[in-house]
Amino acid sequence: MNNLFPILAIETSDRLCSVAILIDDKYYSEININGKHIHSEKLIPMVNEILNSNNIDISQVNSIAISEGPGSFTGLRIGMAAAKGIAAGSGLPIIPVPTFIALANKIADYLLVGQRFAIAKKASKDEVYFVKFVKTQKGIEELISLSLLNKEKVSSYIENDDLVFSNTSNTDIKDIATPTAIDIGRWAYLFGKDLVISNYDLLEPKYFKEFKVRNI
Fold first, then answer.
1. Please, which residues have CB within 8 angstroms of residue 200's CB and are 6 or more apart in sequence?
2. Residues 82, 44: contact at Cβ < 8 Å?
3. Of these four, 29, 104, 107, 152, which has the most CB atoms within 10 Å of its CB?
4. pLDDT at position 202 over 90
5. Which CA distances in Å does 38 have to 12, 15, 35, 125, 193?
6. Cα separation of the two ends of the chain
7. Rounded distance between C-alpha atoms, residue 134 and residue 122, angstroms
8. Domain residue spans in the chain?
9. Cα separation, 76 vs 66, whole angstroms
10. CA dist., res. 85 & res. 89, Å (int)
11. Average pLDDT, the chain
């Protein structure tokens, strides 16, 4: 697909519920609402609002970029279901975007070449999603692949000069970061042209961690 724009982008992998419309690589609009358990109620109205406020009909959108995870089971499931529903109803392709890579690209924009940085995001009470990169001349290079770590072991993977972007209190946090829909849409048009999916019946979030039902 040669022209992905306008792109409707959706990010629901964490507490943030975020939607954006990217008209091209310079002009965009975004709506963000932060809160627990709001995605099912807020997401579709936010999509309608972002389209209406920019005088864009869904028929004018060319693709949907969706954050695929890992992250919140419920948030990812709601976001993916919404993206597939909108796409199916409008005949649009979907671009699944790796959440942590999109976030890493956002972070790298503000760093000097050679700076190492890690992303450590809470996965459960005792576990953390962890990945580590270095900023290079061409972008980012992965130093430690995305892993699921016991939160007590995270510090052993962090060196003195590393920056840590995290939402867990068991690291020496220097900054806290989460992607927004703009970051998802930006990654989609920069790197996602070969990931465009038109047959998305089997498209699912990348949970990474197995979902377990606990008895209360």
1. 84, 87, 93, 94
2. yes
3. 104
4. no
5. 10, 8, 6, 21, 31
6. 48
7. 21
8. 7-98+179-195, 100-166
9. 9
10. 6
11. 91
Q: What is the pTM of this model?
A: 0.92
> How many Cα atoms occupy the beta-carbon half-sphere of 113 within 13 Å?
4
> Angle at Cα 50 formed by Cα 47 and Cα 18, nearest 5°?
60
Tokens of 206: 């990348």
pLDDT in tens, 78-125: 999 999 999 999 999 999 999 999 999 999 999 999 999 999 998 988
Interstrand relation of 16-22 and 28-34 (parallel, antiparallel or unpaired): antiparallel
Stretch (H or E) spanning 118: strand 116-122
pLDDT tens per residue, range 9-35: 999 999 999 999 999 999 999 999 999
Report phi then psi at 134, rounded to 5: -130, 140
Query: What is the Rg, in whole angstroms, of the alpha carbon atoms belonging to the chain?
Result: 17
CA distance linking residue 184 with residue 153, whole number of Å: 29
Query: What architecture does CATH give domain 7-98+179-195?
Result: 2-Layer Sandwich (3.30)
Domains 7-98+179-195 and 100-166 alike in fold? yes
DSSP tag of 35: -
